[in-house]
């Protein structure tokens, strides 16, 4: 080891030659700039340099002199090393001083390391832990160039997901899972509202599962990402102690259609009172069956949905303007544009206050519409339709397989000169497979296909091969009066199909609104919160087959988790 000190230069050369010849650590002499003010040296001024080979080695092989070492050139201490040594000294000062035997052993050990770099000694009895840990990895967004949702909103949502997932998995896995989930929700959502709705469902589900696991006394293993996506009842144990008893969900999954029919019929079939309260079409006379009655809800009581056939006055369901329609061929009516908001007028939290806003343009009340229609449309219909209803056929003599069938259905509506009309019927079986999907040519003149919600083009509707009577006939080939029909707000579908049916399961009744009737939860909200599936966010409109499948899944989910 070589120690640098600062002295006068008179004896520097001689001492240097003597130290080299004796293979001793040499003392490098630096010239003194000011003899009156000698330079004070400190431990921090000590550095390590290589030993110079002896002068008498000229012409001799280096291998003959084992004391000669080829050490790298001078390296000064880095800032990080200084910081580490400073922390070690600070930690050592807080610990009790080592005993004399420990000091002696340390000195003896250090005497055997001459010629090597100095390494700060750390007592084995009290290891020093660095207080400076690496900062946690910050999650980054996938496809940050997407303009569907602002980057700031996405990053905030991603951070929330990571915070929730990190309770069940390592942070690296939580970040990867949150990134995948956030990007998947972004791609499936067409609007910012749908994106935020799906995110809130995931966060709510995660917190519910966390609370359930905290309250459980069993030492269950950590939750996996797959269990998180399965729903709130994933991972629950079955009732009883018999290991051969399968979980209820597994049993339901193995049901045949007949077994599933019995289970659903006993639990969820709506009563006559429920049918009437929810506005289902019912016969006025069960024997004649020539006229139906439909009870209007409290929300629709202020709207006149059914008018006399001779009354030409109508109210636009979009802009709420009054207008007249043609009753006779010689009637003269004025055509005017319809300026309206296609979104719903809901309350939104803005700066800690709930303010009503339109979901389409985020504008407040009294603001002019954001969309323009060529003409007014209405949901009002004449009372003549009460005579147009039919009922599914009765059971055939002997065995009728339709009596144990289960179907889910959904319809898409368009606007005509006679009001709203059914333009598409989609039906799926108990496995979710599509069994009927027909475009219907509506009665009256087609005014608007309502493409934003129906997804139907004008050419599709006008070129349809079947009218309503033809679709009813096709539908009755699949069902009879005993068949179970499943849907969301199924009364509107049955009214548009002009069908009376009592064996129905309505998911809007099965999963009621927190405020109670007449309020109902939207199907897309039920899907995102319970099934963790995002629907009705496609820019091409709703898919009636998908809506029917979601209604079926909701009923099966209810049955599996009871």
UniProtKB/TrEMBL annotation:
Low complexity composition-biased segments: 1-13, 89-106
GO cellular component: nucleus
UniProt record, GO biological process: negative regulation of gene expression
Subcellular location: Nucleus
Ranges of Basic and acidic residues composition bias in the record: 34-43
Region (Disordered): 1-43, 84-148
Chain ranges of the Exonuclease domain: 405-562
Key words, A-Z: Exonuclease, Hydrolase, Nuclease, Nucleus
Any Pfam family hit: EloA-BP1
Primary site of residence: nucleus
One MF term in the entry's GO annotations: nucleic acid binding
Domain of life: Eukaryota
Cleavable signal peptide: none
InterPro entries reported in the protein's UniProt record: REX1-like_exo, REXO1-like_dom, REXO1/3/4-like, Ribonucl_H, RNaseH-like_sf, RNaseH_sf
Family matches, as SUPFAM superfamilies: Ribonuclease H-like (SSF53098)
Record family assignment: Belongs to the REXO1/REXO3 family.
Protein name: Exonuclease domain-containing protein
Biological source species: Panagrolaimus superbus
